[in-house]
Amino acid sequence: MSKLRCVVIDDEPIATDYICNYVNQMPQLKLVASFNSAQEAYELIQRGEVDVLFLDIQMPGLTGLDFIRTLDRKPHIILITAYSEYALDGFNLNVTDYLLKPVRFERFAQAVLKLSSLSEISFKSPTEDNMRKKDYIFLKSGYKSVKVMIDEITHVEGSKEYVTFYSEDGKKYIKNERLKNVEEQFSSFDFLRIHKSFLVNLKYVHSFYGNTIEIFDMKIPIGRAYKEDLKKWVE
User: Which residues are bridge partners to 220 per DSSP?
Assistant: First the structure.
């Protein structure tokens, strides 16, 4: 089955990372490239080598809306921004959809499904079972998105709109996401919520005492509301 060729343009590395990750989770899409500025993608788009453009609006230099106006050959465009006031301008430019940051995967998938009526590609919404079967995720490391096996993640720490993934080899990866969403995504693996800010891989729990769990040399607190769930695992 042919896939829609996608390009992501955003000057924020974290936003670029998770949108690219979302694209990779949709079997009907193929990530061609990602760019930090619109100008870098101009020739690729004008050559007709892009079917779908995921485009940030607020960028230094040329904004996303201004960039659309420069294109003689327009792919399907899905705008991504933190500012709702640009929605009308976007739809006046005939964009396919308009997503507000931080973008949840479910909302992203809805936007992609709109393309089914605009292209010859047959789209299906990813089912919960298919999403759970995936045993890896792509996470940002420097300028690259690297494949990390979920089973090799020791624990995940949440802080407002961001989470930090800790891997078995001692590396850390930060992603713009809520811990609750990660908990749902990892629900078919051996992960347990033990605190409002921590999700742990039970495979790596060495010991626990009082209100603390030990994973290697890390001491992680156990929240009062989560003690019963931990007790069930021990028993």
Answer: 213
pLDDT averaged over 10-residue windows placed end to end, the chain, 235 residues? 86 90 91 92 90 91 88 89 71 82 89 72 46 72 86 92 92 90 84 93 86 90 85 67
**Other C-beta atoms within 10 Å of 144: how many?**
9
Task: Please state the length of the chain.
Answer: 235
**Rounded distance, CA 27 to CA 11, Å?**
26
Domains of the chain (ranges; CATH) run 4-126 (3.40.50.2300), 135-234 (2.40.50.1020)
**Burial of 127 (C-beta count, 10 Å sphere; 0-12/13-18/19+):** exposed
Question: Side chain identity at 81, as an amino acid letter?
Answer: T
Cα 216 to Cα 45: distance, rounded to the nearest angstrom? 48
- C-alpha span between 13 and 36 (Å, rounded): 8
- Cα(145)–Cα(67) distance, integer angstroms: 26
Distance, in Å, from the CA atom of 193 to the CA atom of 182, rounded to the nearest integer, reads: 10
Measure the CA–CA gap between 22 and 230, rounded to whole angstroms: 32
Ramachandran assignment for 134, one of left (phi > 0), alpha (psi -120 to 50 degrees), beta (any other): beta
Query: Would you say 13 and 140 are in contact if contact means Cβ atoms under 8 Å apart?
Result: yes
